[in-house]
Write a structure and sequence with these properties.
It is a single chain. The protein is mostly helical. The chain is built from 19 helices and no strands.
Length: 441
């Protein structure tokens, strides 16, 4: 058996590699997002029927948040595999785990059938979803970034970042169609399960697309691999890890407020139809996906850090106008509010797939970038729908508390980005540059 370090990686076509990474990431995020949509619309009364409507929604969003808590654990597990055994195995294992857990969610009996075991099973499967997704991002991004030429690394690395938008549109598109063709009773009875079952077909497609991807050439060049990558990251790069997590928190908070909390808020509090609200959110996400390569190219030209700072500032300025526009309940203002939020998000996150790997040295890159990315998800994504729902309850027509909460998170992220260095001139193989304000722990 040949040592993987002696095997020369084939030079792949960058469009083929980027397309395969995008498709796989889209499938895994479809799995993750379809749960969020179901949590906003239907899981509360089906799995927490003894709760009040508000408490049921909060409980459903609580199970949604468990997926985020699992993601850093998944990034530790799969990051270890990626730094020790290669980026490619991570892509296959994470896709299998997430796909299987998502299909299983669609098979869980409701509370009326098996009682308290129903929400417990839901919680366990959501945890497994998050565990798999925690490994997905690092593997997909690194495989693309470490193949890409230095001058176009931002552009090619942005394709896995388009995957979440595609996955979101797929997930919500399926729910939108089902909502349009089924009655409320049919949707509550069995229709909500269909998007979860469809994840099985998508997982098989993703495995086929990823079966021929070559290993990262940068990984094959590493002679001295970290024995315990997580320990090395915590020991030597703890401050960088905390700064990246804090910097990314605002992006997660903005995205999941716009795509998950707003759906529950508009349909339950404002009486907006499910179909109309899903269409508004999907249209805004399509704009976000289309702008991702553009912001990545700007990052290649002007640097990663300026884009991240600009996106954080835009988010801080837009959160209160966004909730005011949402509170109108009218489709066009709601779309404008959501679109503005997701434009701020993509300015900030369009370059992250290149930025995070460049911040960490190659021997611990999969673990460092993945854990930092997913810790940001815990800080900004796990609790935001729950906190926003609680803040909106009892407020007037406009839930200003939600806007203030999101503005505060955006300002924290702005401060963290200000303490991170620019990395654009550094080639991926050069190791971590000496950061401004970041030193070894």
């Amino acid at each position: 058996m040949h040592d993987v370090r002696t095997v020369k990686a084939a030079a792949p076509s960058m469009p083929r590699l980027a397309a395969a990474s995008l498709a796989g990431t889209a499938i895994e995020f479809y799995d993750f997002f379809v749960y969020g949509t179901a949590a906003a619309l239907i899981l509360g009364p089906l799995f927490f029927p003894t709760f009040s409507p508000l408490a049921g929604t909060l409980a459903a969003f609580g199970t949604f948040g468990v997926g985020f808590l699992a993601r850093p654990l998944g990034s530790m597990l799969f990051g270890h595999i990626g730094d020790r055994h290669g980026r490619r195995p991570v892509l296959v294992a994470s896709l299998l785990l997430t796909g299987a857990a998502t299909v299983a969610v669609g098979c869980v009996p409701t509370y009326d059938t098996i009682g308290a075991a129903a929400p417990v099973l839901l919680l366990v499967l959501r945890f497994l979803q998050g565990l798999g997704l925690g490994g997905e991002w690092g593997g997909a991004v690194l495989l693309t970034a470490e193949h890409a030429p230095a001058g176009r690394r931002g552009l090619w690395s942005s394709f896995p970042q388009i995957g979440p938008a595609v996955g979101f549109v797929l997930a919500n598109g399926v729910v939108l169609v089902l909502s349009a063709v089924l009655t409320e009773a049919q949707f509550a009875g069995w229709g909500w399960r269909v998007p979860f079952w469809a994840a099985g077909v998508l997982a098989v497609l993703g495995l086929w697309l990823r079966s021929s991807l070559p290993e990262s050439p940068r990984f094959l060049e590493i002679d001295d691999r970290a024995r315990v990558p997580l320990a090395e990251v915590v020991r030597d790069h703890w401050r960088l890890l905390l700064l990246t997590a804090g910097a990314l928190a605002a992006g997660y908070a903005v995205f999941y407020t716009a795509t998950t909390w707003s759906l529950a808020y508009a349909t339950e509090r404002l009486g907006v139809s499910r179909t109309v609200m899903l269409a508004c959110i999907m249209a805004a996400v399509v704009v976000k996906g289309a702008l991702t390569p553009l912001t990545a190219m700007l990052g290649d030209r002007y640097g990663r850090r300026p884009l991240c700072l600009a996106g954080s500032a835009m988010a801080a300025l837009w959160m209160c106008p966004m909730v005011a526009l949402l509170s109108t309940g009218a489709p066009l203002p709601m779309f404008v509010g959501l679109m503005g939020a997701l434009i701020a998000f993509v300015v900030m996150f369009g370059v992250i797939a290149a930025y995070l790997p460049e911040l960490y040295e190659p021997r611990v890159r999969c673990t460092g970038a993945s854990v930092g990315y997913n810790l940001g998800g815990v800080l900004g994504g796990a609790l935001t729908p729950v906190v926003a729902t609680a803040l909106a309850e009892g407020s007037g027509r406009v839930p200003w508390g939600v806007g203030v909460y999101l503005t505060a998170i955006a300002l924290v992220s702005l401060g963290c980005f200000a303490l991170l260095p620019e990395t654009r001139p550094a080639p991926v193989g050069a190791g971590r540059p000496v950061p401004v304000g970041v030193t070894k722990g």
